[in-house]
Inverse folding.
C-alpha cells in the first residue's frame, strides 16, 4: 500500500489523517496516511528514513523551513514561499518540495465562499510563514492592493519588498490603519491564545467587509467574534483552507482532485463533537 504521513511536533490533534482518509475513500485510491511525530532535533534524518519506502508527506509546524531545505527540488510556489508543506517522491527517488497553503487559501476564498479578489483592497494581519505562502497566489488574482500589517513592522516591510515585483503590496503597523477595506485576512497566531491584533473597527465596512481567520476552531475564533460584533459582511474561519491545501497536496501525489465540500462538512461535524 502506498504510504503517506504528516510530520509535525506536536501532531496528535492533526486533522490531516481524517481528511486524507476521506479523500482516498471518495476517489477510490488505495493508500495509507498517518500522523508522524518527528523529533525536534533531527527532522531531516527522520523524514529521509520515511522516504525509503514512503511516497509523500505533509509537513506542519515547526518543520516547514527544514522541509524546504531537505527537498532535492522545489516548485516555483515553494521557492517563493521559502517553506514546504508537501513532499512528493519522484519516479527517480528524489524528493520534490511544494507549498499548497496559499493555493488552498485562494481556493477557499474564491470557490467555497465566492469571493472575487480582483480589484479588491485586502488587508493581511501578520507576516509569518502562512502570509509568505499566500502572497503569490493572492497577488495573482490582481487585487487593487494588499497591505500587510504586523506587530513587528520590519517583517511586513521585508515581505512587501520581496513580493512587490508581483503586484501592489505595502507594509504597515496595526495602528496606522483606519479606512475600511474589502477583505481582512487574519494570519496572526494571536487567535491561538484567544487574542486579537490591536486593529480599529473602522476597518470594517458594515455589511460588506469579508473577514477571514486562517485559524479554525469548534467555536467562532476571537477574530470572527470581533468581525461579527462590528457587523462585517462575513466572518469565516480557516477550516476550508485546511481542507483545500490538503486537496491540492492529494492532487499532486495522486493526480486525482478530490471533491472538498463533503470532506469539509464531515470535518466541521467532527470539530463540533467535544472530546
Ligand atoms: P508564524 O509563527 O510564522 O507567524 C505568526 C504571526 O502572528 C507573526 O506575524 C506574529 O507577529 C503574529 N502574532 C503572534 N502573536 C501575536 C499577537 N498576540 N498579536 C499580534 N500579532 C501576533 O505563524 P504562521 O504564519 O505559520 O501561522 C499563522 C496562523 O495561520 C496560525 O493561527 C495558524 O494556525 C494559521 N494557519 C492556518 C492554516 C490553515 O490551513 N487553515 C495553514 C497555515 C497557518 P510578529 O512577527 O510580530 O511576531
Amino acid at each position: 500500500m502506498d504510504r503517506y504521513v504528516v510530520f509535525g511536533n506536536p501532531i496528535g490533534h492533526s486533522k490531516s489523517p481524517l481528511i486524507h482518509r476521506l479523500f482516498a475513500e471518495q476517489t477510490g485510491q488505495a493508500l495509507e496516511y498517518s500522523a508522524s511525530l518527528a523529533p525536534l532535533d533531527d527532522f531531516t534524518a527522520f523524514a529521509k528514513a520515511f522516504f525509503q519506502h514512503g511516497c509523500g508527506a505533509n509537513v506542519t509546524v515547526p518543520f516547514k523551513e527544514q522541509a524546504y531545505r531537505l527537498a532535492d527540488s522545489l516548485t516555483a510556489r515553494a521557492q517563493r514561499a521559502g517553506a514546504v508543506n508537501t513532499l512528493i517522491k519522484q519516479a527517480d527517488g528524489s524528493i520534490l518540495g511544494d507549498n499548497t497553503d496559499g493555493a488552498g487559501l485562494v481556493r477557499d476564498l474564491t470557490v467555497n465562499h465566492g469571493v472575487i479578489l480582483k480589484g479588491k483592497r485586502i488587508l493581511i494581519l501578520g507576516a509569518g510563514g502562512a502570509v509568505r505562502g499566500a502572497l503569490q497566489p493572492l497577488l495573482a488574482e490582481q487585487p487593487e492592493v494588499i497591505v500587510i500589517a504586523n506587530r513587528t513592522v520590519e517583517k511586513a516591510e521585508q515581505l512587501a519588498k520581496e513580493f512587490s515585483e508581483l503586484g501592489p503590496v505595502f507594509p504597515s503597523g496595526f495602528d496606522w490603519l483606519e479606512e475600511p477595506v474589502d477583505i481582512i485576512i487574519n494570519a496572526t497566531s494571536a487567535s491561538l491564545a484567544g487574542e486579537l491584533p490591536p486593529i480599529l473597527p473602522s476597518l470594517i465596512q458594515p455589511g460588506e467587509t469579508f473577514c477571514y481567520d486562517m485559524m479554525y476552531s469548534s467555536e467562532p475564533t476571537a477574530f470572527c467574534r470581533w468581525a461579527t460584533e462590528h457587523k462585517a459582511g462575513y466572518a469565516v474561519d480557516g477550516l476550508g483552507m485546511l481542507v483545500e491545501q490538503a486537496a491540492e497536496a492529494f492532487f499532486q501525489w495522486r493526480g486525482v482532485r478530490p471533491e472538498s465540500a463533503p470532506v469539509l462538512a464531515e470535518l466541521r461535524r467532527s470539530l463540533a463533537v467535544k472530546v
Q: What stands out?
A: Residues 101, 126-131, 150-152, 155, 187-192, 195, 197, 214-216, 238, 241-242, 245 surround NDP (CB under 6 Å). The domain at 2-99+243-272 is CATH 3.40.50.10860 (Rossmann fold). The chain has a mean pLDDT of 96.
